[in-house]
């Protein structure tokens, strides 16, 4: 098996599929990763690095011998460097910039006028463009000359450089040479504003039915385009970010990060959650005397906390998706709250009865059954309330509910659950 | 504000953007949704329904007057019906089938030979195809005749219908008419197997740089294609499924589902989690005597459970992403386990010390500090173990770790945490 996998790795390195090589490198433990990396030919290393996630990439960059960089950077262009920039030490970044021609350096600087989250940073600045009064024959001429991946469209601009129309190159085939391009322009092509965020821009491109959409500035000036491959990458990155954020990590986390680094990456999230757990403990501590008298309450605490947490996370997830789709807003927020509270009431009553009966049978005490039933109902209702309100407030405050929503929610449901349960226990059972 | 939003809705309905109309309908409470639906012209209703998620769509289908369906189904094609099929009552499905011509019915039946999760169900069966010995002029002829969205490529097939090569239409422009198409074919175009799963097929299309990739059967016969819009939709659906699955819901969940239906959708997940919570309670119950003596243990229980749960979910999330990217396999599983256990050991020791000191100061008992410190360390280590092993086993058993991984993980960390903490407490504190 050892030999098999070795030959597969060699085959893979010999192949052209730089993305597969990148995925493989990310999946290898550090010592093996470095051994394989040395065997990747220098001419492929740039493309492989561009495909990798930042954390595993930075490890390889740090371990690459200085003498190799001239060869690696030989064909670097601005788009490559934009992907790599944050991973490169200052010296290497300047080295790469010095290799590129003036035009590519300008491209790099233009992109850096926009933030990472803005589409302007990642758009392609090279577009096929003609004045809006050009003819089909002009279109044929430039289409023959410059054929690039995902260029299915010629953009027309007016004298001020503003985007006016788009012509599909394929439509040139069936049109007489002398007619104006605007006669065969697409009826509607959406435009993207250069400061728009990446994930919504990406969705727009993929939905549009065009291979690429034009990007314009606030004045309508044509700045570049976003093609479907870029859109697919951005979308995948966004979803990966959301998945990782739900556990307090980021999308660049390395499967085989060095232990110290990995522990450090995760420590903050553990610390935040520890604070909320201690807060919950503090509230439980208020009822020490009750717990001492009625130890059944201590036994049943996890049930109350769990039901609130799960019900709350269902509402929270539904609202987070709604916010991402722009479907939750001030117009329907109140109706949503009422609906979620109704669902909570219904499920709360059902499960309160079930849990109440189980607790009654277990501890042979109808009062314990009653106390936990009421506490469950209260907690599921408050979970519905918190599940709607927390993400909406976070979103209004421009914070990402996918990252911090569940910590805050769990804090609320834990505290409400424990206080309701132990408080009612103190009243009825002491 | 009321009037504002009303006029916006009217504008939107008048517009051509059926996807926006679909998103709006999904975002409206049921009574408003039905009012708006009635005002959507019948000629647009089909396209709007196709864009909607299943649950909200089914509500509108049930409320649409019977007399409207003839008009709605007027222009229905097989691709529309594939989207709608699961939402339509049998009678309406047959009604729709009877409206379509023979070719479209065949298309529909072909698609239904494949499962929902297979790309064959969702691929486009209409492709521009020529025999592999065709000339550029043949390519020009069919490209002029059939120009469809996302058709940037002509597929060449041999006498057995097997896919051989692909030619970009744009390359026809700069080639003499008499040369064979195979002279200007793409060097490499990936193919997708018709039984492949949707999410990996979609990723392949978006990464490929082509507007569409050919789909072939096991024998290499050309069956259809997947274009970037379909790929974008499938990818978005997959990620939405993953997000919703993490809270035990599905991607078709309606923001404003009727309360009963919504409560029912969520009840199963609550029930499963309740069982695991009771299981944890049962383990706590084994230590009733200890809890009665040392009530501080009851107060601190949430801290132990929380730290294990959070640490475990971080490992779990990392592994789930790795499995989705095909980066976790038998070759690196052991190395991953060692790395995660090392991270767990490091974070476990750090947080055990912090929590131990806090508990010591809080309850003025060095033994309580010691007991919780050891329990935290044990729980974080077992969380790392469970976080790697659970998703790997689920994945091998063809179960989705995104759905059930976190429930099982929490059960493990809760039980290990409580037993370790209360067990050590019994030994050292009684």
List how many beta strands of chain A DSSP finds.
6
**End-to-end Cα distance of chain A:** 66 Å
Number of helices of chain A: 19
CATH class descriptor of the largest domain in chain A: Mainly Alpha
Strand share of the residues of chain A? 5-15%
Mean pLDDT of chain A: 92
User: What oligomerization state is this entry in?
Assistant: homodimer
Q: Specify which chain pair forms the largest interface.
A: A-B, 112 and 113 residues
Structural class of chain A: mainly alpha
In the residues of chain A, how many domains can be counted?
3
Question: So, CATH architecture of the largest domain in chain A?
Answer: Orthogonal Bundle
**Looking across the biggest beta sheet of chain A, what order are the strands in?**
1-2-3
Largest sheet of chain A, described in full?
3 strands, mixed
Please bin the fraction of helical residues of chain A: 55-70%
Unreliable stretches of chain A (pLDDT < 50, length at least 5) are none
The name of the CATH superfamily of the largest domain in chain A reads SLC41 divalent cation transporters, integral membrane domain
3D shape of chain A = globular
Order of helices and strands of chain A: HHHHHHHHHHEHEEEHEEHHHHHHH
Keyword list:
homodimer, 430 residues, mainly alpha, CBS-domain, 3 domains, three-stranded mixed β-sheet, 19 helices
Provide a descriptive summary of the structure in words.
The structure is a homodimer of 430-residue chains. With 430 residues, chain A is mainly alpha-helical. Chain A has 19 helices and 6 strands. Chain A has helices spanning 2-14, 18-27, 30-39, 42-51, 54-63, 69-72, 78-84, 90-99, 102-111, 119-122, 136-145, 198-208, 228-245, 259-285, 288-293, 295-324, 333-363, 366-396, 401-429; strands at 129-131, 153-157, 163-168, 192-193, 212-216, 222-227. In chain A, the strands form 2 sheets. The first copy, chain A, has a 3-stranded mixed sheet with strand order 1-2-3, covered by helices on one side. A 3-stranded mixed sheet of chain A has the order 4-5-6. In chain A, strand 2 and strand 3 (163-168) form a beta hairpin. The first copy, chain A, starts with a helix and ends with a helix.
